[in-house]
Amino acid sequence: MIPQGGSSRYSRQLLIHGAASQAKLQSSSVLVVGAGALGCGCLPYLVGAGVGQITVCDGDVVELSNLHRQVLFCELDIGRNKAEVAAERLRLLNSDVLISAVAQHCGFRERTVMLVESHDIVADCSDNVGTRYLLNDVCFLGGKTLVVAAALGTEGSLARWNYEDGPCFRCVSPTPSHHESRRKCTDHGVLGPIPGALGALQALDVLRCLADMGDNGSSVLRIFDGLSLRPFGLPQRRRNCALCGDNPSLISLADSERWARNQGLSVDSNYQMCHFGAFPVPPLAPLPRHNEATALDLKAALQSSRPCVILDVRDSIQFTICKLPGALSLPLRGILEQPVVTTTKVRDASSSHNPDLFVLCRRGIDSRFATQILIKLGFRNVRNVTGGLDAWRREADPTFPVY
C-alpha cells in the first residue's frame, strides 16, 4: 500500500514499475557502507525512490578535499562524521524513509554481521578492498546480495555478487590483485562526476533487485571509462571458491578475518597503499622497531649535527606537489624494478658519511615496502617514517601542505 501522498511523490517512477514494485521498495531495507563519493551518488536516489529503511555506515569525517565529489556535504560540515551528516541531509529529502547512521567503519565484529542480517541488501560504497572482501563474506554467509561500485581517475566498475546462484566476489578475485588492492583516489585523483555516476548506477541496481525491475537473472560486471559503459558477463560460481564453492574453507567471520590478516588487508579506509598499484609489490610485513621512526624522530634528526638523507618514495607527480627540503625522489616503482640503480642512487646520496636514511611517502605504507627492500639491498641505517607526510604535518609542521 502506497502511503498517503506517495502517488504524487513517486508518480514518475510509478509510471515505470507500477504500484506493486513501489510497495516492495517501501517495505525493503538497504545497508549502505560508505558515505563518501560513491555513497553521495547512491544514497539520494535510494531515499528519493522511497526505500523503506536505509542505514548509512561510515567512520570517516568530512574533509575539505572531499567536497568536489561528495556533494551531500558543505564547508560547514568539515570535521563532522560523514554518516551522521548524510543522514541529516537525506531526512530532508524524504520523510517517508527511516534513515539511521552508524558512525564507524565496518569491521570483523558481530556488529557488522548484525547490520548485514537486518537488511535486505547491501550496497558497498566504501571503495576499500578489505571492506569488499569482508562484506562479500558476511553477505554470502548471511544470504544477502551485495552491490559494489568502485571509482578511480576517469574509470569505475559496478558489480552484483551473491545474487541467486551467481558468483561471489571471491569467484572472480580469490585474492587481491596488485592493481586492485593498492588503488586509492586520495593519491591518484578522481573526477567528481565519475563516482557520482557510479553511485547512481549502483542505486539503480539495488532498486532493480528490490523491486524485481527488469532482467535480474544474471550477474554482470560493468566497466565505466567515463565515455562508455561496457558490460562483461561474469563467470559462473566457481565450484572451488573458498567461500561459495562445494568445499569452502571460509565458513565463518573468524575465517574471513584470518584470511584478511594474511593478505595484509584492512577495513579501515585510511589504510591503503599510497601508489596506484600497476606494479607488483612484496608482502607487507612488520618492520623491526629499530627500523621505524616517527615524524618527530625525523625532525630531531634534521636539527641534529648527524648526517641524514630523506628518501621520498612517492611518484614524481606527488613529489612536485610538496616535499621536505633536501629530500631525494626515489619512487617505489623504480626501487622494485631497478634495485641496482636504486643502490647506486642511495649510495651517491649517502656519500661517505654513513648517514641515517629516513624513508617516507604520503602515509607511511609504501615507505614500509621500500624500507624492507633497502634492508635486503644491504642498507642498515634505514628507517621508515611512520605515518609519512601526513604524520609530519600533524606532529612536526602544521604549515606543511596537505593534498
UniProtKB/TrEMBL annotation:
Residue stretches making up the Rhodanese domain: 304-401
Gene Ontology CC entries for this record: cytoplasm
GO-annotated molecular function: nucleotidyltransferase activity; thiosulfate-cyanide sulfurtransferase activity; URM1 activating enzyme activity
Family annotation (SUPFAM superfamilies): Activating enzymes of the ubiquitin-like proteins (SSF69572)
Family per record: Belongs to the HesA/MoeB/ThiF family.
PANTHER family the record matches: ADENYLYLTRANSFERASE AND SULFURTRANSFERASE MOCS3, UBIQUITIN-ACTIVATING ENZYME E1
One family name in Pfam for this protein: ThiF
BP GO terms, sorted: protein urmylation; tRNA wobble position uridine thiolation
Source superkingdom: Eukaryota
Protein name: Rhodanese domain-containing protein
Gene3D superfamilies: NAD(P)-binding Rossmann-like Domain, Rhodanese-like domain
InterPro entries recorded: Rhodanese-like_dom, Rhodanese-like_dom_sf, ThiF/MoeB/HesA, ThiF_NAD_FAD-bd, Ubiquitin-activating_enz
